[in-house]
Amino acid sequence: MTPAFDSAPAAPRRTRIRQTIDRLRAAIEDGSWPLGSKIPTEPQLVEALGVGRNTVREAVRALVHAGVLECRQGSGTYVISTDELAGAVARQFPAARLAEVVEVRRAFEVEAARLAAARRTPADLAALDRALADREAAWRSGRAADFVEADAVLHSTIVAAAHNAMLAELYASVGTAMRATVAQAVGGDLRPDRYVDHTRLIAAIRAGDPARAADEAGTFLESTSGE
């Protein structure tokens, strides 16, 4: 689908390219082009944006370089990330060792747990209880993919309870890498020896004990299990 873009005002070439990048990014951020979708063809974008072919080409190339779009030979251009930070992280992940990713998770998640214990609201606690219950149910289901997603939701809910918008945005940018560490840790089947209980972590946040919450969050990330 091609969104209805306003006509681009006359501007110097570099400014037109910058404006076009912003308009393409806005279409991704507002959901007009969801993650995984194919964006309109170059001629369609030229017509919709009211700019030249070279301007569209350079704007798309910039978003490809940023890791937001991906050109697939013979198929088209697809949305592979909803923001440039996540795209940059995704480019780094294939070359990163599992231990490095876990270290980054630890930096975010330990501080998030500490802040959540100090700042959580009744609504946050209810959300944490739901996310923990969903994680437990996903484990019992035996479906690894469901568990990985439920585990990610629980950790994101803890980050949200920290009430730090910058931390939440940065943590979201490592979401794909974080899920990959959990998927690698649990493997294709959910064996009892790979289970990591998060009940004590949520209890520490509920108790309003920042030191204990940070300690619990760090404990399961001491090794490279990542779960």
From TrEMBL:
Gene3D superfamilies, sorted: GntR ligand-binding domain-like, Winged helix-like DNA-binding domain superfamily/Winged helix DNA-binding domain
InterPro entries in UniProt: GntR_C, TF_FadR/GntR_C, Tscrpt_reg_HTH_GntR, WH-like_DNA-bd_sf, WH_DNA-bd_sf
Domain HTH gntR-type: start-end pairs: 14-82
Keywords: DNA-binding, Transcription, Transcription regulation
PANTHER family, per database record: REGULATORY PROTEIN GNTR HTH, TRANSCRIPTIONAL REGULATOR, GNTR FAMILY
Name of the featured protein: FadR/GntR family transcriptional regulator
Lineage: Bacteria, Bacillati, Actinomycetota, Actinomycetes, Micromonosporales
